[in-house]
Design goal:
The protein has 609 residues and is α/β, with parallel strands linked by helices. It is built from 18 helices and 27 strands. The structure holds 5-amino-5-deoxy-1-O-phosphono-D-mannitol.
């Protein structure tokens, strides 16, 4: 999983490439590289570590003159992060150069064939195979060579390619890895996603699977794998350019935490009209909605946690059985699906490899409807799902998701309510109350955000914690899962989430004097049950931080530190209770001096299996 940028035009390429790569660093940041062509020689510069190193090494791109180039920011898959493995990769006489995002699954076989033909490899990457294979097939026509390579390689790829004999052309190819083309006033640009091109253009073309784009400074031509030229319409991107910047906050994560009221409002508002839930993009008639007998929610990481909460909400409101699966499990477990099954794939990026594979697995079963709940417009999951419901969170840059998670949650509430309305499992009055409570959520999130200073003081005390437990029942268990993931992924503190009633079946042995236990207690019906579990851990020395509804002052008698959230419908408490957990994780990571936006070993978009 990596970021790719390419430029051809009248401006110096290197500064444009560096600028685009900066926006794509969330896709990988263990090394970076540029290849720039000045018409004489293709010059390559690489560095290990963050893009800033390459920036300094190239003097902001000045050391690489030329108006044609490709750039790459890497997240290692084949071979450790070092200079040899960093992209771009050359063929033997340095006349062809490639950047790649994805995985070439048959690269070992291809490598053997190429070695037998006298090719030598300088890296451990799968990508270098492409450079040599292009060399092998290149007989003067780049397009022909590219198409031949596409027929030989298996796996996922997005390539940016330059040929020394063609100083006025840039080639872009993709299959199962994202790549877009933008047309700007002074040339044309390719990138792994739109955030890298927004500074130059809002008009982009989406390259589809197994298509090639040939760019010159004035023109863009698209071809399919049979070399037939394709007509494409550009799409206008309406995202705010500033939305992709930090806007005064120290970290993207903190900015994104604060953007949640707006993101949630933007996701809810267009779907409530005249007091009714309207989800046009669902593309299903009332009869089809009523015919759904089973729902699978499939996702990874935080999006999976949204699914866990969604199960409680959909089953509770609409009385449809819901199974929640990790995409990496679902794709291989031969799920039983029929025409009355709805499969919901949740993904912020819309590019997560396991989620995409799960989507394809679902689509193999005839009659199954697949709905994508996706944030990135035009992403692979959005394109391949039968229907797509966008979450309007805007670009999310921090690796740890916050606003995308919150918008995914409300998207599921809306769906649950729509199903409940059609199936008559919720009466008109209750529906009106639910809609009112839903619309209040953005302001209530704002209220929770206002108490952040108090949380910072508390978080500073726990920066040295070795292990933290999150417990809760029902929806509170789903919240615990997310609170725990947030903490561990950015602060590197070991933490686990447990269904509160399950703790005593083993895990309670880990509780010792001073262990921090976060007890989530927003479900009124289960409040007393979880409180008993709090007593159990307290009596074994735990320090308890409780998150509960406003009014539960009795909680202070048992818990050591209590965070209150405004009252809402029990189905919606995740949207409020997750906020202090995000803030807590953020401040703990900050106090520990961790790289909040780019935690170690992680990448924003996991486009490999
Ligand atoms: O882009 P997706 O929503 O498909 O990504 C899924 C997970 O990789 C993602 O939610 C991950 O768990 C987050 N980093 C958690 O903060």
């Amino acid at each position: 999983m990596c970021g790719i940028v390419g430029y051809i035009g009248t401006e110096q390429a290197a500064p444009i490439l560096l600028d685009g790569l900066e926006k794509l660093e969330y896709r990988g940041y263990d090394s970076a590289g540029l290849a720039v062509y000045d018409g004489q020689e293709i010059q390559v510069m690489k560095s290990v570590g963050r893009l800033q190193v390459l920036h300094e090494l190239s003097h902001g791109g000045e050391k690489l003159p030329g108006t044609l180039g490709i750039g790459h920011t890497r997240w290692a898959t084949h071979g450790s992060p070092n200079n040899e493995n960093a992209h771009p990769h050359f063929n033997k006489d340095k006349s062809i150069v490639v950047v790649h995002n994805g995985i070439i699954e048959n690269y070992m076989k291809l490598r053997k064939l190429l070695l037998a033909r006298g090719y030598e490899f300088v890296s451990e990457t799968d990508t270098e195979v492409i450079a040599h294979l292009l060399d092998y097939y290149y007989k003067g026509d780049p397009l022909e060579a590219v198409l031949k390579v596409m027929q030989r390689v298996e796996g996922s790829y997005a390539f940016g390619i330059l040929f020394r004999e063609h100083p006025d052309e840039l080639y872009a190819v993709r299959k199962d890895s994202p790549l877009i083309v933008g047309k700007c006033g002074h040339g044309n640009i390719i990138a792994s996603d739109v955030s890298a091109v927004l500074k130059y253009t809002r008009d982009v073309y989406f390259i589809q699977n197994e298509e090639v784009a040939k760019l010159t400074k004035d023109e863009i031509h698209f071809y399919n794998i049979d070399c037939e030229e394709l007509e494409k319409e550009s799409t206008r991107i309406e995202w705010d350019v500033n939305a992709a910047e930090k806007g005064g906050y120290a970290h993207f994560m903190f900015k994104e935490i604060h953007e949640q009221p707006k993101a949630v409002r933007d996701t809810i508002s267009p779907r409530i009209r005249d007091g009714k839930i309207v989800i046009e993009e669902l593309g299903m008639s009332e009869e089809e909605l009523a015919a759904v007998r089973k729902i699978y929610i499939v996702a990874c990481g935080s999006a999976y946690h949204v699914g866990v909460a969604g199960k409680y909400v959909i089953e509770g409101m609409a009385r449809i059985p819901v199974e929640v699966d990790l995409a990496s499990e679902f794709r291989y477990r031969r799920p039983i699906l029929d025409e009355n099954t709805l499969v919901i794939i949740i993904s912020q990026s819309g590019e997560t490899a396991d989620s995409l594979a799960a989507l394809r697995e679902a689509k193999r079963h005839s009659g199954v409807t697949v709905l994508g709940i996706v944030n990135v417009v035009g992403s692979s999951i959005a394109r391949e799902a039968d229907h797509v419901m966008y979450t309007w969170a805007g670009p999310e840059i921090a690796v740890a998701t916050t606003k995308a998670y919150s918008t995914q949650l409300v998207a599921l509430y809306l769906l649950a309510m729509r199903f409940a309305g059609v199936r008559g499992t919720i009466g008109e009055e209750e529906m009106a109350d639910l809609i009112r409570d839903l619309q209040k959520l953005p302001d209530q999130i704002e209220m929770v955000l206002a108490n952040k200073e108090r949380l910072q003081r508390f978080a500073n005390r726990y920066a040295a914690a070795k292990s933290v437990f999150f417990i809760g029942r029902g929806i509170d268990y789903a919240i615990s899962l997310e609170g725990s993931l947030k903490l561990k992924e950015i602060s590197y503190i070991h933490s686990e989430a447990y269904a509160a009633g399950e703790l005593k079946h083993g895990t309670i042995s880990l509780i010792e004097e001073g262990t921090l236990v976060a007890a989530i207690m927003t479900q009124e019906e289960l409040y007393k049950k979880t409180l008993s579990n709090v007593v159990e851990v307290k009596s074994r020395g735990a320090f308890v931080m409780a998150v509960t509804n406003l009014g539960h002052t009795d909680c202070e008698k048992t818990a050591d530190y209590v965070i209150y959230i405004p009252k809402t419908n029990p189905y919606f408490t995740d949207s409020l209770a997750v906020i202090p957990l995000q803030i807590f994780a953020y401040y703990v990571a900050l106090a520990k001096g961790c790289d909040v936006d780019k935690p170690r070993n992680l990448a924003k978009s996991v486009t490999v299996e």
